[in-house]
Write a structure and sequence with these properties.
143 residues; mainly alpha; Peroxidase, domain 2; three-stranded antiparallel sheet; two-stranded antiparallel ribbon; 45% helix; disordered N terminus; Cytochrome c peroxidase, mitochondrial; transit peptide
Length: 143
Amino acid sequence: DDATADPSDAQHLRDVFYRMGFDDREIVALSGAHALGRCHTTASGYDGPWSPTPTTLNNAYFTLMSNLKWVPKEWDGPFQYVDAPTGKLMMLPSDLVLLQDESFLKWVKAYGSDEKLFLSDFSDAFAKLLSLGTSGLTPTEWA
């Protein structure tokens, strides 16, 4: 397999989310929020949508991640991937690491094949995230 992501990012995701009480299933479910919206260079430095339906919460993030070939984007911005067929969709290294870690991959496959399961698990994980509140966050110029 090509080097689509640094496997050490799996541990980074776990470090960030485990300290908030999330497990691998919930990490992958919350990552599915990338089905919504897009990256803007003015906010994150990255550019592009994860899916062609950025205003719809669905399982497209998982199906596209699994079914398309992703190649490094050639540009002056931060390292990211684009889909090989069109170059219009993007993935971050932290997205594609979900394909390289067996525990994460199990849930990518499950959510890619069962949108109802994804939406149910996402709803539960997002409610848990909201219940944590916002204390400890650092304000930015956009917040």
